[in-house]
Specification:
The complex is a heterodimer of chains A (about 425) and B (about 260). Chain A has about 425 residues and is mainly β. Chain A has four helices and 39 strands. Chain B is built from twelve helices and no strands. Classes of the chains: A mainly beta (about 425), B mainly alpha (about 260).
């Protein structure tokens, strides 16, 4: 008898699900459907409906989504902005945009025309779209709990002025930016006044300015992203409590390019990041209370440029391998700590075999101080005289900051 | 001419110092490559050998060899041979045996472990530095009759090219720090074959650090094919001018 009761319960569940579905209709748009364009399908839809769009090319001018609907493309329908319009404007909560190809948005610095722009909305999901030749890619203006997932954004502009940002978030809370690929925009991902958000598994490369640009955004976290070959690398400014885990910063080359620029940052935490082949991997200015643990700095010009304005930055268990210069600085004041790092240039010994070197390592060389002041001195790089200068400076430090040292350098790689 | 060259090469290659030099280079390069876990670090150690040891050995050995073969040269001059031929064959013999020694000692290990542009540039620079410093040694010997003075001059020349010149450059840099010095620096670097070879090798090695603004200016010049051809001809000039001048001197020298 118990089995019978269970079956009844099961039927009841099925009934509930069907009933819930019954209130949400699916409306089709396409060349062979009643609704020839998406606009009329949206007009016919009501909150909670799904609008399914067939493959094809649609010139919708500016498509405004002002209802809580799911807009789903089958076979990548193309929305063409004809280089005049903002392609999709979202002005409703709980909207989903899934599986479209958006091309040729208009260009206007006055209105920030975008591929998809979200206006003051919550719980919007934008996923699986391809954006090509859009001015701004996906723009969130005052969004809450929005998800931007698995989109590919590709800009084709050459000049900074003619180009917008890939994923631009201006004012927001609890956003999730996951698994996007962003190429050739001005800034790959731009955050301004965005709180409690996650940037996860994105690839941002070949952008004209920054791969990631953070301003006044607190309590955010970015994990497992790749920032490669961007004009000036990654820039994080005026933000508090930022967490960075396992990101890759690679091949950001140029005099003003940094793997990551930390300017006026407080209480940050960085762990497990890889910095490879950057002109300077980290440039820190006015950074306070930053913890850096278990990062790898490999084959960079400068692994770390730490200005004298930084306070209480702690570096421990990092690996410094094959960098031209380990640390560069601009003054003699040092209020930061280096401990238990592995430096491949360390020439000390370990008599008591505790795997920690017995004499401190001084990562700032005399020659790096000279180059910092007179960049042209680069021409004497690795010449006999600079080696000689470095050696004498190591024995009798006079120009290099006395306190900038790792008193407990590791003999082997820290991890 | 060929006979003299052959004789000089055979004589030098049997020389104990030359054998030791080759052995040292061989041991140093193999140990550098097998001891360091990453080859780029090994290449850097080898870079120091090429830029310091090779010019030193080349210039000192050539000077001493020339002073020791004064009697042989006098004997040759008494034969119906042009002085020019004698001098040039001596130079060719000496330069080629130094190059052979370098190639066996350092060239082969480098090509074994680093058969790429870095390796080729290093081997090329080592060989051309051997020849240049042999040429400079010829200039020193033809100018000084006294052996002690000649060897002293050779050591001073080596010190100048490997250390003092760079000190001078650094001094100029500090003095004229307010001016854009990138281009004058390129011009200045052509005045020292060691600096020029170092820059050529470094452009292949340390890309990241050189990619700053200054580095970019250097790379823009030395990295292009025009720059490479230019530096090649500058290095060639560093051989031709001392050899030409010493030949002229030797032609009219009272032995």
């Amino acid at each position: 008898m118990g089995g019978h009761a269970e079956m009844r319960y099961f039927y009841f569940m099925i009934f509930c699900i069907l009933n819930a579905n019954a209130s949400a209709n699916t409306i089709y748009a396409g060349a062979k459907r009643t609704h020839k364009n998406i606009r009329s399908a949206i007009i016919a839809a009501s909150n909670g409906d799904t609008v399914v769009v067939d493959a094809g090319i649609y010139n919708e001018q500016n498509l405004i989504v002002d209802k809580s609907i799911v807009l789903k493309g089958i076979g990548l329908p193309v929305l063409d902005g004809e280089r005049k319009y903002e392609i999709i404007s979202i002005k409703a909560n709980h909207t989903v945009i899934d599986g479209f190809k958006l091309i040729h948005s208009g260009i206007s610095s006055l209105e920030d025309l975008s591929g998809i722009k979200v206006y003051d909305s919550q719980y919007v999901v934008i996923r699986n779209n391809i954006l090509e030749d859009t001015f701004f890619g996906i723009y969130i203006q005052n969004g809450l709990n929005c998800i931007i997932e698995n989109n590919t954004l590709k800009a084709i502009s050459i000049e900074e002025q003619q180009s917008g940002n890939g994923i631009h978030c201006w004012k927001g809370d609890s956003l999730k930016i996951i698994g996007n690929i962003i190429l050739g925009h001005r800034d790959g991902i731009y955050f301004e006044f965005v709180k409690n958000s996650v940037i996860w598994r994105n690839i941002s490369k070949n952008n004209i300015r920054y791969g990631l640009h953070f301003m006044f955004s607190n309590d955010d976290m970015y994990v497992n992203n790749v920032f490669r070959n961007n004009g000036s690398g990654v820039s994080v400014m005026y933000s508090n409590r930022i967490k960075m885990f396992s990101n890759y910063f690679e091949e950001n080359w140029g005099d003003a390019a940094h793997g990551i620029l930390l300017k006026e940052i407080s209480d940050g935490y960085m762990e497990g990041n890889y910095f490879t082949k950057n002109t300077s991997a980290i440039f820190m200015e006015g950074a306070n209370r930053i913890q850096m643990k278990r990062n790898v700095f490999e084959n960079n010009g400068w692994a770390l440029k730490i200005q004298a304005s930084c306070v209480d930055v702690v570096l421990e268990y990092n690996n410094f391998i094959g960098n031209t210069f380990d640390v560069g600085t601009n003054g003699s004041l040092v209020l930061n700590q280096f401990k238990n790092n592995y430096w491949d240039k360390y020439e000390g010994y370990d008599l008591n075999k505790d795997k920690i070197g017995d004499i401190p390592y001084r990562p700032v060389s005399m020659y790096s101080m000279i180059v910092e002041k007179y960049p042209t001195a680069m021409i004497l790089f690795r010449s006999f005289i600079t080696t000689l200068l470095d050696k004498t400076e190591k024995i009798l430090p006079s120009l290099t900051p006395e306190n900038l040292k790792d008193s407990t350098p590791m003999m082997n790689k820290a991890f | 001419m060929n006979k003299i060259i052959k004789y000089v090469i055979a004589d030098i290659l049997r020389n104990k110092i030359m054998v030791i030099y080759t052995g040292f280079l061989l041991a140093a390069s193999f140990s550098v490559f097998s001891l360091e876990d990453n080859t780029s670090k090994g290449l850097l150690s080898l870079l120091n050998i090429i830029l310091i040891v090779v010019p030193l050995v080349s210039i000192i050995f050539s000077t001493i060899y020339m002073y020791n073969s004064v009697e042989f040269i006098e004997l040759l001059v008494s034969q119906p041979l042009k002085r020019r031929t004698i001098w040039l064959s001596l130079f060719t013999g000496l330069a080629s045996s130094l190059s052979i020694a370098f190639f066996i000692g350092a060239g082969i290990p480098v090509l074994l472990y680093q058969a790429n542009w870095i390796g080729y540039t290093m081997v090329f620079s080592g060989i051309i530095l051997s020849i240049i410093f042999a040429a400079i040694a010829f200039l020193a010997t033809v100018k000084m009759r006294d052996k002690a003075k000649g060897i002293g001059a050779a050591i001073m020349l080596w010190l100048y090219f490997s250390l003092l010149f760079d000190g001078l450059v650094l001094f100029l840099l500090f003095q004229f720090a307010d001016y854009p010095l990138e281009k004058p620096m390129i011009a200045l670097s052509t005045l020292n074959p060691i600096d020029l070879s170092r820059i050529l090798i470094l452009l292949q090695l340390d890309v990241s650090a050189m990619m700053g603004y200054t580095g970019a200016v250097f790379k823009d010049f030395f990295g292009t094919s025009t720059g490479l051809i230019f530096s090649f001809f500058v290095l060639l000039t560093w051989i031709i001018i001392p050899v030409w001048y010493s030949t002229k001197k030797f032609n009219s020298k009272d032995l």
